[in-house]
Write a structure and sequence with these properties.
Layout: H1 3-10, H2 14-23, E1 30-31, E2 37-38, H3 41-55, H4 60-71, H5 77-110, H6 121-127, H7 150-160
Antiparallel strand pairs: 1-2
């Protein structure tokens, strides 16, 4: 199928398909004599996998590691689980950060009269220095860094590159 058909069937835009091909997430498409890309059902399956991983917030680097695991029938499920839990920790940290931002803005908005006067606690609050950052122990682990199999994943990715 051509790139337009692959895009429609996979739910991934043609632009993103070309990008994923350029990033090495999918192999280069076979080309017709006229130079048009042609995709097999397995390519579309990979595109759906990538799309689902993107929908769950995984980065391109993370998806690359997940694809290596997906294609490796000898993988340990513990490796996949460790990657997923590491990603969950990162998502929870981001959620906490966004909740803090929302609470700060709500507090500032609660103190604003919203009238014609120029004094505004929101503007004043934005001009204040930010609160100190949380201690390093509260940072979420970086994906693939704090997992026992991360070095094996990088080696497998390098071997397939």
């Amino acid at each position: 199928m051509n790139i337009g058909q692959a895009a429609k069937v996979s739910g991934v835009s043609a632009k993103m398909i070309r990008y994923y091909e350029q990033m090495g997430l999918i192999p280069p498409a076979h080309r017709s004599e006229a130079g048009y890309r042609h995709y097999a059902a397995s390519d579309v399956h990979s595109l759906r996998y990538i799309r689902r991983a993107r929908d769950l917030g995984f980065s391109i680097e993370q998806i690359s590691e997940l694809l290596v695991l997906w294609r490796n029938c000898g993988r340990a499920s513990a490796d996949v689980k460790a990657m997923a839990l590491s990603h969950v920790a990162g998502l929870k940290a981001k959620i906490a950060e966004l909740q803090t931002m929302a609470h700060t803005l709500e507090r500032l908005a609660d103190h604003c009269h919203g009238n014609d006067r120029p004094d505004c606690p929101i503007i004043a609050g934005l001009a204040e220095p930010a609160a100190t950052a949380p201690p390093a122990s509260h940072k979420a682990p970086r994906f693939g860094i704090d997992t026992p199999a991360s070095s094996r994943h990088r080696a497998a990715i390098a071997a397939h590159a």
